[in-house]
Amino acid sequence: MTKRKNQLTHPLDSLVRTDRIPHIWCPGCGIGTAFSACLIAMKSSGIDLQKTTMVSGIGCSARVPGYTNLDSYHTTHGRAIPFATGMKLGNPELNVVVFSGDGDLFAIGGNHFIHGARRNMDITVICVNNLNYGMTGGQVAATTPSMSKTTTTPMGNPEPPFNLPLLAFASGATYVARWTILHTRELTKSIEEALQRRGFSFIEVLAPCPTGYGRRNRERPLDSLRFYQEKSIVKNDAHPADIILDYQKGITLGTFVNVDRPTFTDIYEKTCRLDPAACM
Amino acid sequence: MRPEVLTGEHFLTGDEACAEGALAAGCRFFGAYPITPATEIAEHMALHLPEVGGTFIQMEDEIAAMASVLGASCAGAKSMTATSGPGFSLMMENLGLGIYTETPCVLVNVQRAGPSTGLPTMPAQGDMMQARWGSHGHYEIIALAPSSPQEMFYQTITAFNLSEIFRLPVLIMADEVTGHLSEKVVIPEAAAIKLQTRKLPKGRKDRFKPFQPGPDGIPPMAAAGEGYGIHVTGLTHDERGYPVMSPDAHEKLVARIVGKIRNNLHRIIETESYRLDDAEIALISYGVSARSSLAAVDEAREKGIKAGLLRLITVWPFPEELIASLAKRMKALVTVEINLGQIHLEVERCSRGQCPAFLVGHAGGTVISPDRILESLEAISK
Ligand code: SF4
Q: In a designed cystine with B177, which of A268, B123, B241, B251 is the match (CB 3.0 to 4.6 A)?
C-alpha cells in the first residue's frame, strides 16, 4: 500500500510490517489487542529490538510474529518452544519471544511447554487463550470450558480445561501472569516485566474469538469484554492453585509467580564446560 | 580443553567418528533424544561439544530435538541431531520445515530394523524410502550412506558442507553395524579439512529479501539478531518471506527448492566403482551391505563370474544416469540392501528395461552375508 503524504503514522508503525496489512484476523477478535500490547511493551522495555526474535507455531495467534517488524519465525504446529530453545542456545544474546495460541502451546505443544518451563529456558511465552481452535473453525481445545459447544463437541465439551497458570507454575516457570485484552495496561506492564527479566516467563492473555467460539456459545465480542470487566478479580501473588477461570464464578487475574532461579544456560555454563577429564 | 579437530589415528566406533566429524565440521549445537543405536553420537557430543564452545541439550522428544536444531541454525549455529527409526519418523514434520525454510543442518539416522520398535539393537536399511519421501509434499533431499567409521567421520563433514552450500537439512543414512563397528579412523590436520559456510547477505539490511535467490538458485542466509528483520515461515512464501497463498507462488518456490538439487547433481552425487570395467553383473549397494558386496565380488571373480560393485556414497539424489548407463552394458544389476526392496526399485526404474534387476535383501536384523550374495550371483550367471 502506498501512503499518502499527509497520512499520520501510528507510533507502533516501526514495529509493524505495514506492507502486510490488512491482517487476517476477524472483526471482534482479541488477538490484535494482545499484539499491540506486546509491541508497546517491546518498545517501553528498552530491550535491544535488533536482538529480539519472535517465534510462533500455527494458528491465528501464531500469525503475530509475521506482522511484527523483527526477525520472526513461523514454525510448525506446537513446536515454537523447542525451536525457540534452539535459537536461544544457538545465540544466547537473542531475546526470544514465543507468541502463539492455546491450542498450539498447550495441546499439540503441551509437552514442550512443560519442559521449557522445567528447564527455566530464558524465553518469554505469550499465549493468547481464546478457548478453542480458531483458525480451523472452532474446535474443542485443551482450554475449552466444560460443556461449551464447539464444532467437535456439538453437544457440549465433556472434558475439563487446563488451568494454564497452574500448569506453568507446577512445571517450573519463574514468571506467571494472566490478563485479559480488556486489561491492556496491566497486560502491557506484565509483558514488559517478562521481557526485562531472565528465565521462563509465561503470560496468558484471555481474548475473545467471536468466529470460532463466541457464535456457538452465545458470546458476542462485547459480551466477552463485559464479562472480563464484571467477573475478573485481580489477585497478584495468588497461589496458582487457587485462581479460577470459571465463566459463572469469575476469573482471577494478576502476576502469580515472579521468582529467581538459575536458567538452563546459567547452570550449563557452570557445570558442563568443565574439562571432562575432571568429571570422569 | 581439546582441539576442535582430533588430528591423529584413533580406534573409534562409527557413532563416535560421526560425532568427531561434526566437531571438526564446526557443529556447535546438538539437539538430542536418546535412541538405540544412535545414542553414542549424543553421548560423545554431550561430553565434547561444550569444550569447543558449543551447546548440547537433550530435548523432551525427537520432535523437539529436530525443532531445536532448526532454531539453532536460524540463530547462526551449525547444528545437528542423530536418531534411529522411530525417532526418524517423529522428525519428519520438522525436516519438512527445514527443507521449506532452507535451514541448513544435519540429521543422522543410524538405522535399525523396523517397522515400529522392531529390532532396536540390530541393523537394517529399511528407512531409505522414508529418507526420500518421509515428510509430506514434494521435495528433493540429500542422503549419504557411510560404510565405515572412517566414512562416518568424513561424510558428517560432507553433510555439513552440503547443507551449508545448498541451504537444506542433509541426511546421513547409516546403519547399526556401521554405527557400532570399531575401526581405525584417521583424522587429518584441521587445515586439510575443507569447510563450507552459508552464503551471507550483502548490501543494505532494510532492502534484504531473505528468499531472493542468487544466480545459483540459493538465497544468502541472515541469522536472527543481525538486524535484517527477516520473516521465515513454513507457509508458501515469496522472496520477502511473506506468506502467499497461490498456486503460482507455490509452483515457483517448490520448483526452486527442488531445482537446488536437480540442477546440481554433479556437485552432489558421489559413487565408488570396484572391478566394474570388465564386469557383466553389477552389484549396487551402500552402507554395511556394500562391505559384504565387496567380498562377494572377489569371491565371484575367483569362481569366474565377472562381477563388479557400484557403491552408492550418495543415495539421494539417486545416480539415475549412471545406473542407466550401467544397465546398458551389464547382463544384470543386483541391488544388495537390508530391506525387501527399496533402492532396488530405483535401480529397476533407472535400468529402463535394458537388463534385468534383482534384489538380494532381507527384512533386517543382521548383515547380508557374502555367501548369500554369491549364491545369487551364481544363480543369475547360469
Ligand atoms: S477465528 Fe477467532 S481467533 Fe481466529 S481471527 Fe477469527 S476471531 Fe480471531
A: B123
Residue type, B170: V
Domain encompassing residue B107: 8-192
Say yes or no to pLDDT of A275 above 90: no
CA distance A113 to A80: 9
- Identify which of B57, B64, B77 has the shortest CB distance to residue A112: B64
Give the E-state strand segments of A103-221 in sequence order. Answer: 124-129, 132-133, 139-140, 175-180, 201-206
Q: Which of B211, B236, B246 is nearest to B137 (CA)?
A: B236
**With a cut of 0.90, is the ipTM above it?**
yes
Residue labelled with grid coordinates 557400532: B180
CA–centroid distance for A185 within its chain: 16
Q: How far apart are CA A211 and CA A135, in angstroms?
A: 9
d(CA A279, CA B80) in angstroms, rounded, equals 25
Q: Structural domain tally of chain B?
A: 2
Evaluate whether residue B84 is within a structural domain.
Answer: yes
CATH number where B317 lies: 3.40.50.920
The DSSP output letter for A107 is: I
Q: How many domains does chain A have?
A: 1
Mutate to test the interface with B, among A14, A42, A68, A87 (most CBs of B within 10 A): A87
**CA-CA-CA-CA dihedral for A149, A152, A156, A158, to nearest 10:** -140
Q: How confident is the model at residue B292 (pLDDT cuts 50, 70, 90)?
A: very high
Is there a contact between B308 and B276 (Cβ–Cβ < 8 Å)?
yes
A275–B60 C-beta distance less than 8 A? no
Q: What is the pTM of this model?
A: 0.97
